[in-house]
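Below is a filled-in request sheet from our internal design queue. Each sheet records the structural input a requester submitted and the sequence that came back. We keep these sheets so that new team members can see what a complete request looks like end to end.

REQUESTER: design group, bay 2
PRIORITY: normal
MODE: inverse folding
CHAIN LENGTH: 68
BACKBONE (tokenized):
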């Protein structure tokens, strides 16, 4: 059992992602909290991601089209 630093709930170790750098081999926050944070970051940086994609398309349109 391990306590998530974000939500504060006690959860099984299987509820945490692996992290080799930590002593217990798991991240400090649970998968559920990590997914919420990732989704929030994705939404918050929508314009930045679009700008980056546009820049890559201008640099190399053929490769950009293959990725989609």
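RETURNED SEQUENCE:
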């Amino acid at each position: 059992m391990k306590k998530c630093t974000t939500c504060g709930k006690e959860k099984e170790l299987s509820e945490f992602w692996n992290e080799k750098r930590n002593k217990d081999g798991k991240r400090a926050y649970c998968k559920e909290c990590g997914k919420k944070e990732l989704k929030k970051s994705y939404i918050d940086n929508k314009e930045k991601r679009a700008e980056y994609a546009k820049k890559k398309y201008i640099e190399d349109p053929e490769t950009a089209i293959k990725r989609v």
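SHEET NOTES:
- Helices lie at 31-44, 46-59, 61-67.
- The chain has three helices and four strands.
FILED BY: M.R.
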